[in-house]
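Feature request disguised as a bug report, sorry. It would help if multi-protein outputs had a clear separator. Right now it looks like this:
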Amino acid sequence: MGCWGDEEEDFLKLLMPNFSENVTLGSASQASTSGEAGAVISPMNSHFSSLDCQDVLRNIFERLPVPDLARASCVCRAWNLVASDREIYIRAFKAPWKLKDVVGIPSSGSFWRDNSLGKFAISHRLERGDSVASLAVKYSVQVMDIKRLNNMMSDHGIYSRERLLIPISKPDMLINAICYIELDPCAKREVAVLYLEGGPDKKLNSLLNKVSSEQGRRRLVDSLKRRMQVDDGTAQYYLSISNGDPRAAISEFSEDLRWERHAGLS
């Protein structure tokens, strides 16, 4: 399947301490009866029914890092149901950096699948006299890293912004810290933002939320256009009459289609 590889034995050892011995004995017995030396026990057969138990799966998945959790969600529908739980993903996201909390809801669930250091940034509110070079020295990072993170082509881009996102160079800064998930309108990326002094600015946060909600609605409309195979205006109309519920919008559209077909046949 591509998602089930060398980590198979690690998953099963958590369930069965004597897994290695059981597999060896099981393989030997199968080989002796069938005459095939390379017999393999599938983890999804009747010998491993405990792998279908959600409580057992949850207990295992809560111990996994983000990459392994993503692989586990690809194994089968039952595993995906448990591995996609938001609480499990947030816990796995925080664990390597010993974060105290992560506040906010990302625009896409795929946000949780990458918890590398590059996913975090420091929010620096710009003041008179600040420059990209001076901030690079202050935070011990490279000038190009600041420009890349903030989607800046030149140093002059600093004058049109209220803040800059600064890459985190010292992972210890994240220990017991609270990060806020924000979609920066200038950087055009979603990151977990660390505020060294206080929390998010209310005015700035309002702007970020507005941009985030607009982009979220745009994605929703595009998704409805593909599902219903209609133009932009039609998708927005059905979304508006269903109070923003995409399922209700599709249901309303389907009802109208059925009515039109029935009227046409009549």
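(second protein starts here, but nothing in the output says so)
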Amino acid sequence: MPPQSLFFTEVGIPQQKPYNSEGIIFPTVLSPNPNNTCQLSLVNFTQEIRVHKPWLDSLLHRTGAILFRAFPVNSASHFNDVVEAFGFDELPYVGGAAPRTNVVGRVFTANESPPDQKIPFHHEMAQVPEYPSKIFFFCEVEPATGGETPIVLSHIIYMRMKERYPDFVEQLEEHGLIYTRVLGEEDDPSSPIGRGWKSTFLTKDKTVAEERAAKLGMKLEWTGDGVKTIMGPIPAIKIDSTRQRKIWFNSMVAAYTGWEDARNDPLKAVTFGDGKPLPAHIMYDCLKILDEESISIPWQKGDVLLLDNLAVLHSRRPFNPPRRVLASLCK
């Protein structure tokens, strides 16, 4: 805790995971300091964020994720104020697969796919060149049951996969990945990847869509009632230059196990960059490793979770409604 602040205190919760070799506990959890004599308010919270931004940045860099719990954040507009207090630039949601709705300001719904569907682990927008560096989540309505947002450290997954499947990882590093997805014209809320091409490229004009796709390095093949998007080859392994380590920066398992709807076959959604198929047994073992290394914290109303998108993959568990989790993406 910064010595000059009586506002924040680090707390422990049962779901945190220690990485003793790295000297961290994942994630960091911050709550209001019980010794604070000031009134706990949203104004005070956002002010303290601004004052202690360098310290919060250092915490996020060290552990990859910060959960703010028991602060007075009660609505989407409150959450927008919190996001604004951090001062990160907003990232327009161009090229992402998930259907989302703008709620207020910089705040959107998280993936709106049906509650019985699991969303596999991924780095946000890892399948496009311009991806967010930070992601905020906010629990406005906590789930009846389930609905957690499991998180996992990316460099740990890289190390475990490199140890178990060195030849496969070498192929990934050499060839990268190609992602293929078929989009309809309009959004399909029944699909976890149901974003239509109009909202994906923020236009109704096919020529503009092609221009925006080209800027992303994406090829488009128009069909009768939609379009096939082809992205890649793009790297599957990146170097996190701020921490000097390799990270498992891809949506490979998410695409292979979860990009399925009326238009899409997940087995065709992702291949090696040379077009060769990915080995099924390795895909499912990677899924198992992700689950083993992940932590899953039940949402509480008012929770704000800040993730470093270069350090952490996230997913979503199925749930029983109600549940309303909102998100904001930052450059």
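Even a blank line would do. Unrelated, but nice: The longest helix spans residues 280-293.
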